[in-house]
Amino acid sequence: MKYLVTVKSVEDPEIKIKIKPDGTSIETDQVKYVVNPFDEIAVEEALRLRDAAGGGEVVAVTIGRKDAQQQLRTALAMGADRGVHVVCDQPLDPTLVSEALAKVVEGEKPDLVLMGKQAVDDDQGQVGAMLAERLGWGQASFVSKETSLESEDEKAKKPGVSIAGTTLQVVREVDGGMESVTVTLPAILTTDLRLNVPRYASLPGIMKAKKKEVKELKLADVVADPTPKVKILKLEPPAQRKAGIKVADVPTLVTKLKTEAKVL
Amino acid sequence: MTFEGWDFCRIDDELSEEERMARDTTRRFVDDRFKPLITEHFRKGTFPMQLVPEIAELGVFGATIKGYDCAGMNNVAYGLVLQELERGDSGLRSFASVQSSLVMYPIWRYGTEAQKQHWLPLMARGKKIGCFGLTEADFGSDPGGMRTRATLDGDHWVLNGSKMWITNGSIADVAVVWAKTGDSQDSIKGFLVEKGTPGFTASNIEGKFSLRASVTSELAFDGCRLKKDAVLPESHGLGAPLSCLNQARYGISWGVIGAAADCYETARAYALERVQFGSPIAGFQLVQEKLVTMLTEISKAQLLCLRLGRLKDQDKLRPPQVSMAKRNNVSWALEIARLAREVLGANGIADEYPVIRHMLNLESVYTYEGTHDIHTLIVGRDITGLDAFHAGA
Ligand SMILES: Cc1cc2nc3c(=O)[nH]c(=O)nc-3n(C[C@H](O)[C@H](O)[C@H](O)COP(=O)(O)OP(=O)(O)OC[C@H]3O[C@@H](n4cnc5c(N)ncnc54)[C@H](O)[C@@H]3O)c2cc1C
Asked: B375 C-alpha to center of ligand 1: Å?
């Protein structure tokens, strides 16, 4: 089996984002980048599937700036076998990204594509569905699992999804419950938060990752027209929240909830 | 736009991708796995042993050793790893320093191939924990005066004496014990003493107010018989244990930057939030002066470490240079912790914030691995050629 995982380099969610004076992009000068947390879950699932099957190949792909290579290397340090980096330093939108990925899939011919259900930078959540449509493949979105993240299976790093022949069996998170589905391979799978706890890139893994192959492509190699279809008009920070207040005791709290917040 | 973080001089740009990745992965581990536990462990005076397999899986132990299931990273990457561990707690960094620099290093440097093959992979995987016994109750700064003795009796070494202030002493599976095999300090050799060897006991030192999340013990050897191959054959004289300390001191110089940075970040955030006399205390000149001093000294400490790390990777590092870094960086880290404690006012003494814990820990770091003053004497001797170690000298 060959697994393709997507790894997007995103601004560290821990840092404070600042909007540039132009109002349509963010300050990148002091910004640290990390692997999109949902993509880490996808990488982890691919590694578990490969290792449980006792073989196979995990290929990690990123589309982005030259220095996004560090996030790609992080996936390699976690254990992915090699990387593909579509190097580009221009605004992208889900249409472009899915077109580029479709081209990479065409070349790599994976059996399963695993990707985060969304990227935490712009929260579009469209690429998985668009890619499935472009390829005409089945898709399981918001993939989770029945067992909890504290379970023995999770501690033993067992995959949360299972594959039998050309059938992929997954559990999806739906409103207020779980849905079990099967999808025929080749397929796309987008990962939700409770699928697994991704491993840390280890120091020996980081050393090994240095020697793993990363194939570089240009955006022009994988898309016909690099003009994004979506244009950002304006970015605004959320409104400042007012500071909270401290109350002396529970009765005062209840009164305030009734009379001021009007929630009781 | 205000400056966030503490890499004021963009030292990040000087690091390789591998070095940044090593730091970042350790930082996440410490934030996710260690920080939620530390306050309780510090209160109870215990080390979170349950994390040892995870620390091992991260590849921290013996990370600069090539082969033997170790990561084989360069010294800058390793320094950054220790910096992140000590951002968690000096006890966590001490655990890693002892295992890597004080136990794995002497086995790697002075041991036989068989000793290396046996111990290093087990220690890298955290299956075996080690400790380092040099200090004695009557010989701290002056270890050359040690009384612990090893004498040959047929096929066995017989060990007699005791060691004091030994990190991880009672939890270690193996102790690297330094003993004289004759009268002079040139006769000092290292021995591998396994837990449970008859005549070897370890007991904990209680009542510490510093480095509480780290086990500190006393080791006693009473006619303790060791097989002949328990000796580290290539260790000859006091220089051998000192070479281990030199490794560990290099790591400490990096480590304390992490503790200082945690204090700085806590103090800065607190000062921006805390309002007195109608404005955030960060707006007062006296508070700003403290924050500026902290960040300036953190930046200088980082630059010093980075330079020494590059020298170490080129095999050009001299021990007095490490002494300069240990002396400077630890004393500034302690000062930064004290300044941060002041900025936090009463909250500065509560363990709801990490500051008082770092401050207390750094008092140990100031003393162990050569006290501040001893490092002054080492650098002083290096630049004058005159030895000021002995009274009347
Ligand atoms: C928490 C902790 C963990 C430790 N872990 C270990 C360990 O794992 N293994 C190990 O072997 N040791 C360990 N140590 C011991 C540590 O290395 C010693 O405490 C240190 O070397 C200082 O020795 P001392 O405490 O005997 O102080 P002393 O040597 O008695 O020094 C007391 C004071 O006298 C000063 N002084 C001494 N000589 C001179 C001089 N010539 N000129 C001027 N001033 C001088 C010192 O600077 C110091 O201020 C640990 C200590 C602590 C606190």
From this structure: 11
Beta pairing class for A82-87 and A57-64: parallel
Residue located via tokens 């002079």: B184
Q: Is residue A167 part of a domain?
A: yes
- Note the pTM of the prediction, 2 decimals: 0.94
Cα end-to-end span (Å), chain B: 56
CA dist B131 and A82 (Å) reads: 40
| Residues of chain A contacting B69 with CB distance shorter than 8 Å | 204
Ligand 1 midpoint to CA B141 (Å): 5
Task: Give the CATH number of the domain where residue B344 resides.
Answer: 1.20.140.10
Chain B nearest C-alpha distance from A202 (Å):
4
Residue A220: inside a domain: yes
In whole angstroms, give the CA distance from residue A117 to residue B98. Answer: 43
Q: Does A16 touch chain B (CB under 8 A)?
A: yes
Same domain? For B57 and B157 the reply is: no
Which of A34, A73, A207 is opposite residue B71, by nearest beta carbon? A207
Looking at B66, B98, B124, which one is the last position of a domain? B124
* Minimum distance, in Å, between the CA of residue A122 and any CA atom of chain B: 22
Confidence bin at B393 (pLDDT 50/70/90): low
Give SS3 for B159.
strand
Amino acid at A102: A
Residue at a domain's end among B173, B200, B230 = B230
Whether residue A18 and residue B1 make contact (CB cut-off 8 A), yes or no, is: yes
What is the per-residue pLDDT across A221-252, written as a single tens digit (0 to 9) for each? 999 999 999 999 999 988 888 878 888 899 99
Are both B28 and B95 inside the same structural domain? yes
* pLDDT of res. B1: 64
Residue B372 CA: nearest ligand 1 atom is 47
CATH number, domain at A219?
A: 3.40.50.620
